[in-house]
Amino acid sequence: NDPNFKAALEEFRTIYATAGIALGTVSYFDVPAGQAAAYAVVDTTDGKDSELRKLFELSAGAPNNAMNFFLVREIKGGQAGFVILGIAGGIPGIPFEQGTNASGVAVTAQDLAQDPKSVARTMAHEGGHWLGLWHLTEQDGQMFDPLSDTPECPIARDANKDQKVTKAECAGFGAEYLMFWEAGPTASQLSSNQGFVLQRSPVVSQ
């Protein structure tokens, strides 16, 4: 019933609608109190025994035809100067099998009260990974997704020569897209080919 989460969910719905995807039934599950306390801050993300992977395993028993989102307070382990807003269990994740260490997406909810649309974009971005999408351009400006209709932002755009291409440096070169590597304040665009990939995930009903 939280109005900020409702706003985030509505924005998430709007973003995916641009790819021809309508949300089905949204179900809510409370993680048991002890586990909720243990995983509210995800301290480790690497390896099958990390807290992130153990968190995804809590999906056991959930409906199989769905994508799981775990809302947490914080995900630790970001590079200097960057905060981890979300992590997908895989690219793609594992559909139709709950309780695995790739059965879900973790999203930080710390900005929910101040900027629910930002949380929605993180949900949509990480959900895009889980459904099979890669970043248009990786931060090194040298690796790109294989889709022909998404723009690339090469390392030549690295104006300050820090070996990263940022959303500011890539304006007009992909920073406006949902799947750009760095979260932007309005990044929500999806290409036709990205929509094609999303629509063919096993958890997206035709």
Structural class: alpha/beta
Work out the strand percent. 5-15%
How is the quaternary structure best described?
Answer: single chain
Strand tally, please? 5
Task: Report on this structure.
Helices cover 25% and strands 7% of the residues. It has 206 residues and is α/β, with parallel strands linked by helices. The strands form two sheets. It has a three-stranded mixed beta sheet. A two-stranded parallel sheet has the order 1-3. The radius of gyration is 17 Å and the shape is globular.
In a few lines, what is going on in this structure?
With 206 residues, the protein is of the alpha/beta class.
Strand and helix map with partners:
Layout: H1 3-17, H2 33-39, E1 41-42, H3 51-56, E2 69-72, E3 74-75, E4 86-88, E5 105-108, H4 116-130, H5 192-199
Parallel strand pairs: 1-3, 2-5
Antiparallel strand pairs: 4-5
Helix pairs in contact: 1-4
Overview features:
two-stranded parallel ribbon, alpha/beta, 206 residues, three-stranded mixed beta sheet
